[in-house]
Specification:
single chain; alpha+beta
Length: about 350
């Protein structure tokens, strides 16, 4: 059930706590692993957000960057849901250095003064899905791009739109990552990374689960075009899956921060959550490309040497087309605990 506005709210009801966490779990994460846990401390009116070590990917994500990004995105959506319900909040990142799994505290500070800009994004929470379908050739207008840049800046991150030569370079990095994956049998590191990917992706006939990427979300197989859309089916057959021509000139954006620390990763994750909801509200379809960023040498090469973007954390594909398909989410009871 989605969180609903409350008239003159005084305390968070148990139902509202569950509803806003359910909203938060719609955030994107690497292979839809949903690497978050929430604990609501009633007396302190504080949501504690933590990484779930059981959902770590030590070969794809050895430093936990992707886990932080996912938790940051969920934290942003949690803030949006609470603002929609009328609550003001304050966020503390990495509140306890002695507990690295504890990534953030979100304290509810009052029943007035909710962030209106965040609250306005609430209708986009349930509409946002990753789209692995072809987009049209329609260009995203400058004013829409500017709004996305502002959304990232509001969370302490930067969103840039690379020019044509840099797009070409990024697509080459994607191809490099695909080639490494294709040759995983001869590379122990790539083999282990591919095994982790296989754990979180499924094909028809395999056991359904509340996490991971199901075949219904794969989209058609790309037989032409340059859009960086990862084929999670790989060599596996997906019954009924067709093929399609994708964009020849994909519209990409880079999300990054000046630094490259866990706090930066959380800021980038919050920015990702905000940018994706703003894009959805503006009628855009979106998909994410982290494939080349999973390799340290390729991640370094992804940044534009002519800009001061710093570290790239995500490549976004934007455009107009099918909105994508919903992927499964874990029940709230599995990710939320309520404490006195």
């Amino acid at each position: 059930m989605a969180a609903q506005p409350q008239e003159q709210p005084q305390e968070l009801s148990a139902q509202l706590v569950a509803d806003v966490v359910a909203d938060a779990t719609t955030a994107p994460s690497l292979h839809n692993a949903q690497p978050w846990r929430f604990a609501y401390r009633t007396a302190e009116r504080t949501f504690r957000v933590s990484r779930d070590p059981e959902r770590a990917m030590p070969h794809l994500d050895p430093d936990g960057r992707a886990q932080h990004l996912g938790c940051g995105a969920a934290l942003c959506v949690l803030r949006v849901a609470l603002a929609h319900a009328g609550w003001a909040t304050a966020t503390t990142l990495l509140p306890d250095p002695a507990q690295p799994l504890h990534v953030a505290d979100l304290r509810v500070t009052g029943a007035g003064g909710a962030d209106g800009a965040l609250a306005a994004l609430y209708p986009a929470i349930r509409r946002r899905h990753t789209s692995r379908d072809p987009f049209t050739a329609d260009v995203v207008p400058p004013e829409v791009r500017s709004g996305l840049v502002e959304a990232a800046a509001a969370e302490g991150a930067r969103l840039t739109f690379p020019d044509a030569w840099h797009v070409d370079a990024l697509l080459e990095l994607v191809h490099d990552a695909e080639d490494r994956t294709a040759g995983y049998a001869a590379d122990p590191q790539a083999q282990q990374a591919e095994q982790e990917t296989a754990r979180w992706t499924r094909v028809a006939g395999e056991r359904a689960a509340a996490e991971g990427v199901p075949p219904s979300a794969y989209g058609p197989r790309k037989h032409d075009g340059r859009a960086p859309v990862r084929d999670f089916a790989a060599h596996r057959e997906v019954p009924g899956r067709g093929s399609a021509t994708f964009e020849a000139a994909p519209q990409l954006a880079l999300l990054g921060t000046a630094g490259d620390t866990p706090a930066d990763w959380l800021r980038a994750g919050q920015a990702l959550g905000r940018v994706l909801r703003r894009a959805t509200a503006d009628g855009l379809a979106t998909s994410l490309t982290s494939h080349p960023l999973e390799w340290p040498d390729l991640r370094w090469a992804a940044r534009d040497p002519l800009s001061d973007l710093g570290t790239v954390h995500m490549v976004l594909r934007l455009g107009y087309g099918p909105p994508g398909r919903a992927t499964p989410r874990r029940p709230v009871a599995e990710v939320l605990t309520v404490e006195p």
